[in-house]
Specification:
Blueprint (H helix, E strand, L loop, with lengths): L2 H26 L6 H16 L1 E6 L2 E9 L1 H12 L17 H12 E3 L8 E5 L6 H14 L6 E6 L2 H16 L12 E2 L5 E3 L5 E6 L13 E5 L8 H9 L7 E6 L8 H13 L10 E5 L25 H16 L1 H11 L14 H6 L11 E7 L7 E7 L4 E9 L3 H8 L3 H7 L2 E4 L6 H14 L3 E7 L5 H9 L4 E3 L4 H16 L9 H9 L2 E4 L2 E4 L9 H13 L16 H8 L1
Parallel strand pairs: 4-10, 4-11, 5-8, 5-9, 9-10, 12-16, 14-15, 16-17
Antiparallel strand pairs: 1-2, 2-3, 6-7, 7-8, 12-13, 13-14, 18-19
Helix pairs in contact: 1-2, 1-3, 1-4, 3-4, 5-6, 9-10, 16-18
Length: about 575
């Protein structure tokens, strides 16, 4: 064994043991970590035992052998050691990857299939601010570009120009300050025309942004990094990049972000999916998706500095970082206007930015169940037809199932305008069956009444009452009565809606009322804010920035369903004793 081979073997074993011990410490609670990160570490250890993964092979999924490449781990680590910290308390010192960083790059680069190709195709990394995200991105980018035998295209995509430039400049500064001769001469690489080019293989690193009108159209990325994904208002850049990577047999997409304030953003949807990949209690299984989520487990941990390491694995690992974080906390406590930002950006909790938000998102998620069989059930129906040139909705509450759902309608002529304005995938929701697209520019009462009749007939529903707002649905109500429905007016004011609104929320919080995770209803719940007057509340359409009609329809149904008392079933057998029968038949 020559000296180089011996180095690879010994160093590979050393680094691998660091990762394994780190993962064990996380799962055993020796290192403080959130539930999601514990599941990530447990997943890694389980994969070491089974050494197989269910991956895409042609047009199907197939269980194939996988292995952990220790030589690759050595190469990534040695690559990182070439560079120096650009800023902060360690500025000018060589970069030594922490166990947290080593765990991430080890999973991304070192899990491989039999053919030597990487196992993971997609990566989601969520961690609080100032935990060396940009530094790690720069190392990953340059390693990917320089150490390949192919001409790689690497794209760093922020929503704004400043964000994409931040990582690009970090990469340039790392290369300029690198140790050794590998980057000493400008002939090995250059950063002209706002692009890093490595001359040995022609690989390039290019920043993209919506602001700069560079979204990756026509690209063929081998690595696409979506930086601070929570800032991305739409998936425009992601879609452009991922549509071009199908020509690559080993392409990689990396989302890296702090949490944000918009629960309707593409990033939050990705966060939910990444969480479900790690959750053993869900049916989601994706062995080609690597999730790293660093967050507090509850709001109760906000005031406990001992828990902050859960979302700050690097900041909380040294005294200066701890002191700076605690200073930000005290400032946030003294100035409530800073508290929301501190909780989200520095402690890693997604929080809706809206004031007086109607529903706690975690409690809404906890009320989710599998779609029940609604056939033959009693149902109360609510309607919201306040704007027939926009989204209109039916809400349903099944009192015997303690279950609510919705169905909405949208005029075809405004569909793409709505997608652009609201930045949500109405077209996808139509395909999934949560919304019906109506021909033309205006919603016709007869169309939605016809849909409702068919729905009730198909599922043999026993409609108790249909609840409507008399201000916006008078003609609708007349036609519905003509077709045999029992119509009940629900006037839209605090006097009528306060108690049902509070009761609806209370039942969700107590897990006494459930839903099936309908994304349109979730969208409305995320948007809803309340109007409050001396303890009386109702959801407020004027203050809600986006659509809440599906939720308003469900609450209209709840206005009557909350008073539902099932009729007692008559059991004639209770009278069928001998004395009764003698009297009956003589």
């Amino acid at each position: 064994m020559d000296s180089l081979e011996k180095f690879y073997q010994e160093e590979g074993d050393r680094l691998f043991n660091i990762i394994v011990q780190y993962a064990k410490d996380i799962t055993l609670g020796k290192e403080k970590a959130c539930k999601a990160y514990k599941r990530c570490a447990k997943r890694f250890l389980n994969d070491l035992k089974k050494q197989t993964a269910n991956v895409s092979v042609g047009f199907q999924k197939k269980v194939v052998p996988i292995y952990f490449d220790k030589r690759e781990l050595v190469r990534v680590n040695e690559w990182a050691k070439l560079f120096r910290h650009v800023k902060g308390v360690l500025a000018g010192q060589p970069i030594n990857l922490t166990p947290f960083q080593l765990f991430i790059v080890g999973n991304i680069f070192c899990w491989k299939k039999e053919n030597g190709k990487r196992r993971y195709k997609k990566v989601y990394i969520q961690v609080a601010r100032k935990n060396a995200k940009t530094q790690l991105l720069a190392i990953i980018s340059s390693y990917f570009a320089f150490n390949s035998s192919q001409m790689e295209e690497i794209y760093i995509a922020g929503w704004g120009r400043d964000q994409s430039d931040k990582c690009f400049k970090e990469t340039v500064n790392q290369l300029k300050g690198a140790e050794g001769d590998i980057f000493k001469y400008q002939s090995n690489w250059d950063d002209s025309y706002h692009k890093i080019t490595f001359h040995r293989n022609g690989s390039s690193i290019i920043p993209l942004s919506k602001e700069a009108r560079k979204t990756g159209d026509g690209s063929n990325p081998s690595l696409a990094i979506i930086d601070e994904y929570h800032c991305h208002e739409t998936n425009e850049i992601v879609d452009s990049l991922t549509s071009g990577d199908v020509a690559r047999d080993d392409a990689l997409l990396v989302f890296i972000t702090t949490p944000g304030f918009n629960l309707n953003s593409p990033c939050y949807k990705e966060y939910e999916y990444a969480s479900s990949v790690l959750d053993e209690n869900t049916v989601v299984e994706n062995d080609e998706y690597f999730s790293v989520i660093m967050e507090l487990d509850s709001k109760e941990e906000i005031d406990d500095p001992e828990m902050w390491i859960k979302s700050n694995p690097i900041v909380c690992s040294y005294p200066e970082g701890q002191s700076n974080l605690y200073l930000k906390y005290t400032e946030a406590v003294d100035d409530p206007t800073k508290l929301r930002s501190f909780i989200t950006k520095n402690l890693g909790l997604w929080i809706n930015s809206k004031d007086k938000k109607f529903m706690d998102n975690e409690k809404w998620k906890n009320a989710k169940i599998q779609m029940p069989d609604i056939t033959g059930q009693r149902v109360y129906i609510g309607t919201d037809l306040s704007n027939k040139i926009d989204l209109c909705s039916h809400g349903f509450e099944f009192p015997d199932l303690n279950f609510v759902m919705q169905h909405s309608f949208l005029p075809e002529d405004i569909l793409w305008e709505k997608i652009k304005k609201d930045k949500v995938p109405y077209d996808l929701w139509i395909k999934q069956g949560y919304i019906t697209k109506i021909d033309g520019a205006v919603i016709d009462d007869n169309v939605i009444i016809g849909w409702l009749e068919d729905f009730c007939k198909d599922y043999e529903l026993s409609v108790q009452e249909v609840c409507f707002d008399p201000w916006s649905a008078r003609q609708y109500a007349i036609e519905m009565e003509n077709r045999g429905f029992t119509m009940v007016e629900i006037r839209q004011g605090l006097k009528t809606l306060s108690e049902p609104t509070k009761n609806f929320r209370e039942k969700i919080y107590k897990n006494e009322l459930h839903h099936a995770g309908d994304p349109v209803l979730q969208f409305a719940v995320n948007n809803a804010v309340t109007r409050d007057n001396n303890g009386n509340i109702m959801i407020d359409k004027d203050k809600s920035e986006q659509k809440i009609d599906p939720l308003a329809a469900v609450i209209n149904a709840h206005c009557r369903a909350m008073y539902d008392t099932p009729a007692e079933k008559f059991d004639p057998n209770q009278y069928a004793d001998e004395d009764f029968l003698k009297k009956l038949w003589g």
